[in-house]
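REQUEST
  id: r-88c1
  op: predict_structure
  target: Non-homologous end-joining DNA ligase
  payload:
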Amino acid sequence: MAPITDVEGRRIALSNLEKVLYPATGFTKAEVLHYYATTAEVLLPHLRDRPVSFLRYPDGPDGQVFFTKNVPPGTPDWVTTAEVPRVEGPSRMVLVQDLPSLMWAANLVTEFHTPQWPVGAPGEADRLVFDLDPGTPATVVECCEVALWLRERLAADGLEAYPKTSGSKGLHLLAAVRPAASERVSDYARDLAVAAERAMPRLVVHRMTRSLRPGKVFVDWSQNAARKTTATPYTLRARPRPLVSAPVTWEEVENCGAPEQLAFTASDLGPRVQDYGDLLAPLLDPDHAGPLP
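RESPONSE
  id: r-88c1
  status: 200
  body:
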């Protein structure tokens, strides 16, 4: 029988704690739960009030991996849910609002993915995102070069950019914007991706076409669409190692000379949060949001 744990007055059954989820390092489910519990202070503000899509991998990244957007069967009645519009019609999704709901969701073994808009204003984005995805043999090193160009271009438009690793091969760039229709944010992001390709044609591609991407950085602007989601800051990823989508400093981006310099695992995040706090905290402050040009 799964042990029952009390989290802030909520009883949660935590199952299969000894299961190894990341065979490359022996990282267990208990360690996954510990990671989320100890990073909750910085993670929860980025989840709160945003409908969550779960990318679940209950048997590790080498097992079955699947998306769950609707409220999973067996969700406790104390977990907050909300009806949100979808292309195929409205659906009910989970909101991870507090530590008990975070630990319940973490027990499902999941990546957390959220849209660029809050649940109270569906389709009204309050942040902009670029997913910089390198095509082999390009790596995150080339992504950093593109990120620096985009930072300057966004700054020229009055928007301050903040980087984080994708937790996979690339880099995410985020900026807080004053609420605007997702379509407008997406159009603006596409225009910047096109401009980046024109400025760095040997390095950047703005189209998803696979044949165009080897050796280049795909500047994916499409995650600004209302229906799309992006890996939430601090989420673990379903990779061979327990890699995290980790906020990084611009100094780290500027000095990146090898992929391993921007590859952070769960064990790295405690010391980083202690040293830096939440590097993405300005995204949560409306005073840091700029208007789209």
